[in-house]
Structure formats: C-alpha cells, structure tokens
Amino acid sequence: MEFALTEEQRMVQETVREFVQKELMPLEQEVLRNEREGRHGLPDDQILKLQLKAKEAGFWGINTPEEYGGANLGPMMTALINIELGKTFIPFTFGGEADNILYHCNEEQKKKYLIPTINGERRACFALTEPGAGSDARNIKMSAVKNGDHWVLNGEKTFISRAHAADFTMVFAVAEKDEQGRGGVTCFLVDRDMGWRSEPIHTMDDWFVSSLVFDNVFVPEENVLGEVGKGFELAMSWITMGRIKIAAWSVGHAERLLQMGIEHAKSRVAFGHPIAEYQAIQWMLADSAVEIEAAKLLVLHAAYIAENSRDPRRHYASIAKLFGSNMVNRVVDRVLQIHGGMGITKELPIERWYRTVRKYRVFEGTDEILRRTIAHNLLQGYVKVGE
Ligand SMILES: Cc1cc2nc3c(=O)[nH]c(=O)nc-3n(C[C@H](O)[C@H](O)[C@H](O)COP(=O)(O)OP(=O)(O)OC[C@H]3O[C@@H](n4cnc5c(N)ncnc54)[C@H](O)[C@@H]3O)c2cc1C
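Above: query sequence and flavin-adenine dinucleotide SMILES. Below: predicted holo structure tokens.
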C-alpha cells in the first residue's frame, strides 16, 4: 500500500493550493462585507474572471474528457482538488464542466446542451426531488404524457440547486407506458423557454435553491436524455460523485477551521494564560485533528474505489460523505467554541461555515439514507466485514 501522492497529484495539489491562497482567500473579507451589507457575496462575472484565470494555469474542465477540451482528471485528482477548494468559503468551481449525465446526450443533443454547457454559454440544473418525494426519489410523481411528437410534463420539483440561473434542466418525470410497455422514470432536457418557471426558496445560507413548476410543458420527443424508463440509473450516477465532493469539501473546511482554532488558542489569553494551555481546549483541537485525518482517508479511499469503478452501490462514497459531513459539523462547532463571542460574529467566517455545513448532512443523501445504504450493502453481502 502506498500512501504518498504521485508526482503529478502533488503538483496539481500544490497548484490549486496556490490558486486558492493567491486568488480566492484575498476576496474573503470583501465577500463577508458584501454579505453583511445584504449584497451577494461574489457576483457571477467575478467568478467567471477567476475561472478564466484558472484556465491559464490549466484548470479548465477538470472532469471533462480531453476530446471536449478538458483535463479528464478522474475521481482521485478531483477529490484532492476539492479538498483544496474547501479551504476557502469563496463559492468557486473551475469552469469548463458539465454534469456527468450530459455525456449520455446523442450527437444532436450534444450540440445543443453538452458543448454549450462546457463552454459556459448555457447553465443546467438537475431536478429530481419533489415536494412529496425526496429521500424516496423512486416515488416521484411528475408526469410525462405523450402528445403527438411531444411529451407533456406536469408537476413540481423542489430544492433544485442553481435553478435560478439555469436556462435548461435535466428533469426526471414518470413517462406513461407506450404500446411496447416502455415507460417509467425518464430524464428530459427541458429549456426554460419551453415553459417551466422557478421560484426561489430562502434558506439558512447562500446556496441557491428553487422550486420548479411544470404546467403543461411541451417537450419534443428528441429531448429524452438516454432512454425512456432509464432515468433513475442516470440520476443515481449523478449523485455518487456529489457524495465524494461534499466529503472532500468537508475535509478542506475542517483543516482551515482547525488552523484558525490553533492560532486563536495560542493568542487568546484568559486567566493569565493562552487558552491553548487548557486541556479543555487542547482536547477540542486533538479530537478535530483525529477526525479530519480519518475523514481524509475515507475520502481518498472512496475516490480511489470510484476511479476503479468498484462502487456501483455507492458504499464507500456514502461512508465518506456520512463521516465527512458529520465531522465538519463537529469541527466548526468546536472552533466556534474556542473563539468564544468572536465565533458568532460576522467578522469571521466561522458562523458562515457553521450555517453552510449543516446542509451537507441533508443533500445528496441524508445521514439516515446513507446509513440505510451502508446497512443494505452489508446485509445483502455486497461488502463483507473486514475485507
Ligand atoms: C441545499 C440543498 C440542495 C439540493 N439540491 C438538489 C438538486 O439540485 N436537485 C434535486 O433533485 N434535489 C436537491 N436537493 C434535495 C435533496 O436531495 C433532498 O432534500 C434530500 O434527498 C432529502 O429529501 P427531503 O428533503 O424530501 O427529506 P425527506 O425525504 O422527507 O426526509 C425527512 C427526514 O426523514 C428521514 N428519512 C426518510 N426516509 C427514511 C428512512 N427510510 N429511514 C430513516 N429515515 C428516513 C430523512 O433522513 C430526513 O431526516 C437539495 C437539498 C438541499 C438541502
């Protein structure tokens, strides 16, 4: 077993680390100030400028296949990159990306949806969850009924990330059965100007989510992504990589927060001594360090397994996400405690992270659903204890 990173992995890690330190961290105070004054933290045009700067350094389409101009770095490298990006709260991702399921587009669809998305000319959102079906996603009710050479979609979606800015959606609906018996959950590519509308949902942090309303939206039959009735598999393949990403961000956030905790503990004096000298504080630092190490190994292991396509039931991705997202919630709570009153102010990013990371235990599989997946895999013998 080899724990050391390869030369290439180390180089990528160092380049992203430098980008985060030089380009993103200096914007943090501006983002906090903008948010305190009720403005959006970082406008989209500024994010685009940063993406173009990163492109010069070769960071463009990190998961995009080379034939589409990307770097095709794979899950391991992506996990390392997301750990580094997680060290700042600036909401940044590299440009040149498209959702993995868009690679199931046929040639015509690629021209209309995949390639413009990679080029940043179009924006997509992924719409599965409904008001009546979240964890129980197989139970979605949005209907797709055939009308000539169109499908007519009716229903509502909820908690859809980035829908406010999307000009098309990959939406999942239950297609009525045809004469050959084909039907069931199907993914459709639906432009906003075909008639769906979105309404913002206000939440505890700056992550944009919306509800989507489909009221007799006519979708041409050539806009089915993949095959009729095969949508659920597509949806699940979208979710696996998201789980590892959230776990990787959690490690990055927690490392930065722990560093803040260490620095504050050394400089803050109470009862005549730096608080770092008190065991109560030391244990919070030590417990955080232990949990971060454990989470990092789980993330890299899940990424390694994904790289080798050996996690079809999302076992290792679920373990990494369950532990990582809970770990970062504990670490941010301890670091806030170490900062005392300062921890809850908007002068520091701690309270912001406190709000940000809470949702990590909800989306891309709640804690309970991840445990359910892990337990099913054990009970059904997909994984064996101790192997
Ligand atoms: C920030 C954010 C972004 C999101 N982005 C998207 C997106 O882009 N696209 C999209 O389609 N969806 C998105 N979602 C929706 C997300 O996937 C759901 O919120 C999630 O799946 C949980 O569903 P729910 O909210 O309906 O909760 P429910 O499924 O109603 O669950 C309620 C509670 O019951 C528990 N529970 C449910 N079933 C079981 C069980 N069998 N055993 C034990 N406990 C159970 C859950 O764990 C939870 O605690 C997003 C959500 C959030 C918060």
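The domain at 7-98 is CATH 1.10.540.10 (Butyryl-Coa Dehydrogenase, subunit A; domain 1).
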